[in-house]
Amino acid sequence: MPNQTMIPNDPAMKELEECTVEQSVPKMHPLVVLVGPPGAGKTTVGKRLANALHTNFVDTDALIEQSTGQSCGAVFSKIGEPEFRKLEESKVREALGTSGVVSLGGGAVLSPLTRNLLLGHTVIWIDVDPEEGAQRTGADNSRPILQAQDPIAHYRELIETRRPLYREVSRHRSNTTGRGPQRVVADILGYLESIKEH
């Protein structure tokens, strides 16, 4: 059998080496990604869900705050929505490279890139009725996007704009209106168990 000659910088060999390296290093992948409007309870539910699954919790809003040293609201006001979404996209990419439970900011789904990054992930839509969502966020001055003369009408408008996007990226919806976090966590755990069986 003739000897095979190795060609320096052979693209085919380089591709094979890269594939081998990628296969030998398993990529991190979140168990669950939570999306939903501000005040729906993503952080509260996410932390409890992570505890129930014995895993870690990553919040992209917290990643933004850690990297900038400012609240998300302050960063949003300072750099404007387009630049904020770009920063958020980078933190979503970072979070999706971890394991555990990941929670995204309420407006993250407005970015086509973020929606594309969510493909193939188990995304749960944490929802809330406008009246309750507005009540939960009404006293929160750190959310400039929610400041309005009529908070309920503004919140309803915000949810209606984003609802198709939450629906697009998610596999399951859990409404937190009138329900404690533990009931929502139980609902999500039931869903995760059901998809394991298929």
From TrEMBL:
- Tell where it localizes: Cytoplasm
Query: GO CC annotations?
Result: cytosol
Which pathway, metabolic or otherwise, does it act in? Metabolic intermediate biosynthesis; chorismate biosynthesis; chorismate from D-erythrose 4-phosphate and phosphoenolpyruvate: step 5/7
Task: Cite the InterPro entries for this sequence.
Answer: P-loop_NTPase, Shikimate/glucono_kinase, Shikimate_kinase/TSH1, Shikimate_kinase_CS
What does the cofactor field's note say? Binds 1 Mg(2+) ion per subunit.
Detail which positions bind substrate.
Answer: D61, R85, G106, R162
Q: Is Metal-binding one of the keywords UniProt gives this record?
A: yes
Query: GO molecular-function annotation terms?
Result: ATP binding; magnesium ion binding; shikimate kinase activity
How this chain assembles, per its entry, is: Monomer.
Write out the similarity annotation.
Answer: Belongs to the shikimate kinase family.
Function per UniProt: Catalyzes the specific phosphorylation of the 3-hydroxyl group of shikimic acid using ATP as a cosubstrate.
Q: What is this protein called?
A: Shikimate kinase
